[in-house]
Amino acid sequence: MSGFNLFDAEEKSLEQAEDLRRQLDSAPEPVREGIASLVEAYRRSVREQRRLVRVSDRLQAQLASVNQELGKRKAEAEGALEDLKAAQESLVQAEKLASLGALVGGVAHEINTPVGIALSCASHLADSTGSMRKLFEADDISVDDFERFMDTVKDTTSLILSNVERAAELIRSFKQVAVDRTSSERRRFDLATYIRETLFSLGPHLRQAGHSVCLDCPEGVIMDSYPGALSQVLGNFVMNSLVHGFEPGELGTLSIRVERQGTGGVRLIYADDGKGIPEDNLGRIFDPFFTTKRGSGGSGLGLHIVYNLVTGPLGGSVSAESPKEGGTVFTMTMPLSP
């Protein structure tokens, strides 16, 4: 109703025009007809303006309703997006923990061998010591008995020491890698040494698959970065090759080459000589949930995690290509201190 107040002046003008027309009744016919035509035209204009105002008010009401509905839908969409991000983050964290769990399982299996050998040797040494003690108590020790006992002690202690040292090396390597992956802390580390530790912790998976690994990294490259992120990236590269790069029973070679980039950065090239990635998939491999192994152990998050770690905490970039001659190549560039 407030819109019609805008036409008070027009109504007054119409009344004045009607008064003028009546005052001109004695005027010549053409003048009266002209005045009447002008008054009628003005009246039609006012009616049309009123109609337009009503239409405008109706459209504004509809627009307000649409804006309110859009606001509601926007809030719902933003809520759904937040829920999706939270779910995706949970899946990414689950994938990281699953990767760490696989690492734990592999290292635990690997440790079983040296620990088992050391335990067998210790048991054999205990039996030999018990037999020697009985001979000693019976005062029935010959030179040959003593020499055989000493040979047994020498051989078993050597085996115990070597296998315990191997187990300790496995535990040290795994402990550092596991701590780095779970803590996400920044620290200084030697790049070549850390890559070797990461590959060592992945050794059980590589030996089971039968693949060989080549590392070409200059010594003395010190990074002040996030080793856990780097370990996760390398681990995902390796597992991606094992799962997607080769057919069961097929043997291949994985390689890691590191090059200096000026004084403040490095380029890390990871490659395998497997079957490669179809060209149609190359542009999608870093997308979340994209996998060609759906239902066969692939979650589609491995390379997505790689991309987020490289472009996030490591402060670098990553790209992939599949040469015509076969295989897959991932190229990472990252600063020594992001």
TrEMBL record:
<dbReference type="InterPro" id="IPR005467">
    <property type="entry name" value="His_kinase_dom"/>
</dbReference>
<keyword id="KW-0175">Coiled coil</keyword>
<dbReference type="InterPro" id="IPR003594">
    <property type="entry name" value="HATPase_dom"/>
</dbReference>
<keyword id="KW-0418">Kinase</keyword>
<dbReference type="GO" id="GO:0000155">
    <property type="term" value="F:phosphorelay sensor kinase activity"/>
</dbReference>
<dbReference type="InterPro" id="IPR004358">
    <property type="entry name" value="Sig_transdc_His_kin-like_C"/>
</dbReference>
<dbReference type="InterPro" id="IPR036097">
    <property type="entry name" value="HisK_dim/P_sf"/>
</dbReference>
<dbReference type="Pfam" id="PF02518">
    <property type="entry name" value="HATPase_c"/>
</dbReference>
<dbReference type="InterPro" id="IPR036890">
    <property type="entry name" value="HATPase_C_sf"/>
</dbReference>
<feature type="coiled-coil region">
    <location>
        <begin position="67"/>
        <end position="97"/>
    </location>
</feature>
<protein>
    <recommendedName>
        <fullName>histidine kinase</fullName>
        <ecNumber>2.7.13.3</ecNumber>
    </recommendedName>
</protein>
<keyword id="KW-0808">Transferase</keyword>
<feature type="domain" description="Histidine kinase">
    <location>
        <begin position="106"/>
        <end position="338"/>
    </location>
</feature>
